[in-house]
Amino acid sequence: MPVYWIDERANIDPHKLRAVVLEAKGPVAVLVDDADVWGATLSAWAREVPSLRRELFFGCALRSSRVGTLLDVDSLGGSRY
51-68, pLDDT tens digit by residue? Predict the structure, then answer.
């Protein structure tokens, strides 16, 4: 399974995330470390990326003190965090 990692030494350009997920064949995983550095983009990713395809795992790690300010629960729909 292809695994894409996003952090300060990312193996994928974060701005190309959508295209990479759509082009992948079969299961794919996207992991974001220090996700709080992405600010409001994180909520957009958490809402959009999992809806792009089946067989996708999207996980992110961020400081627990930042979850409430970065992940907008209302905009995530049925996503769990």
Answer: 898 899 988 887 766 666
Other beta carbons less than 10 A from residue 36's beta carbon: 17
Whole-number Cα distances in Å, 81 to 8, 55, 74, 76? 22, 18, 12, 9
- Predicted pLDDT of residue 42: 77
pTM, rounded to two decimals: 0.71
Phi-psi region of 20 (alpha: psi -120 to 50; beta: other; left: phi over 0): alpha
Contact 66, 42 (CB under 8 A): no
Strands (E), the chain: 3-6, 28-32, 56-60
